Amino acid sequence: MGDHSWRQINHIWNEEEIKLQRKSVNLKHVPKTFSDYTANYFMKTLYHSFNFITGYREENPTPKSLEWRLIILESFAGVPGFIAAGYRHFYSLRNLKRDRGAIFTFLEEAENERMHLLVCLKMFKASWITRFLVITAQVTMTPILMIMYSIKPQMLHRFVGYLEETAVHTYGNILKNIEKEGTHLNKEWKNLQAPDIAVAYWNLNPKTASWEECLRHMLADEAHHRDVNHTFAELPSNAPNPFIQEHIDNFENIVRKKYQIEMMKKDIHGNRKESDKPLL
Q: Could you tell me the pTM of the whole model?
C-alpha cells in the first residue's frame, strides 16, 4: 500500500452498473438497534421538513422545487464524509497509528458530493434564500454530526446511510418524471445538455451528454455512498477498509483511459505500426 496515487479517484459508471443501481432505489435498511432507530427517526424528521420547506412533492414535481432542493441536499451531503475523514485523521495522528484506508473513502465521498453541487450550480442559480439555508444547515448540523461521530462513529454512518437512501429515492423519482411524457420535468429537463464540468468528471461523451445522464450518474454515486455508509455502520471502529480495492481499480481505469486518449492524439495506433512480423 506504499503507492497512494489511487486516492480520491471517482468511479466512472457504465450503463450496466447504472441500471443495477437504479434497480436498488427501493432497497431500505431495516433499523435494528436503538441507535439505528434514532438515526432513522432523525433522518425522517429532516426529510419531511425539507420537503415542506422546498415545496417538493413526489408526484409531478416542478423544476423550481428541485433546483434549490438539490443545491441544499448536495451542500449538506458533502459534510459527513469530511467530518469522518477529519476525525479519523486526528485519531491516527494522536494515537500514532495507521487508519487502514478509511480516510480516503470518506474524502472521496465528500469530494464527490461537492462535485454534485458544482454540477447543479452550472444548471441553475442559487438564490439568496438558498444560500441562507445552505449556511444555516451547515452551521447547525456540523456540530451535531461531529458530536455524533465522536460518541459513536457507527451511528453517524447509519444516519448517512439513511440520508443517501432519501437521496437515491429523490433522484430515482426525478428520473422517472423526466422519462414520463407530459410531466414538468419531461418538458423542461429532458433535452438539457450536460455542463462541461460533468462531462469531464464522469467521462461523458461531450457530443451526446445530457442533464438526464448526469442525474443517472448522481443516483449511482449516491447509491454507492448508501452502501458504503451502511457497511461502515456494521464494522468495528478499527476494521480495515473493505473498499480499498475499489479505489485502486478506479485509478487504474482512469490511467488506462488517459493512455488511450494520448495514443489517439498522436495517431490511431500511438507509437505503433501494423506489421505481420513477430517484431519490427
A: 0.83
Residue 124 C-alpha cell reads as 441553475
Under 8 Å between Cβ of 151 and 220: no
Cell numbers for 205 = 461523451
- Residues with Cβ within 8 Å of residue 68, at least 6 apart in sequence: 54, 126, 127, 129, 130, 133
Helix 63-95 vs helix 153-179: crossing angle, to nearest 10: 150
Give the pLDDT confidence score for residue 5 in this predicted structure: 43
Torsion-angle region of 25 (φ positive above 0: left; ψ -120 to 50: alpha; else: beta): alpha
* Distance separating alpha carbons of residues 211 and 198, to the nearest angstrom: 9
Which of these, 76, 64, 105, lies nearest to 167 by C-alpha position? 76
Distance in angstroms (rounded) separating the CA atoms of residues 113 and 64: 21
Integer Cα distance of 157 and 225 in angstroms:
10
The span from the CA of 116 to the CA of 110, in Å, is 10
Contact in structure between 65 and 54 (CB atoms under 8 Å): yes
pLDDT on residue 271 = 55
Average the pLDDT over 95-104 and give the result. Answer: 85
The confidence score (pLDDT) of residue 104 equals 86
The Cα–Cα gap between 135 and 218 comes to 23
d(CA 198, CA 115): 8
Query: Rounded distance, CA 247 to CA 8, Å?
Result: 7
- CA pair distance 199, 208, nearest whole angstrom: 10
Phi first, then psi: what are they for 244, rounded to 5°?
Answer: -60, -45
- Residues forming beta bridges with residue 193, ordered by sequence position: 210
Q: Which three cell numbers stand for residue 243?
A: 473498499
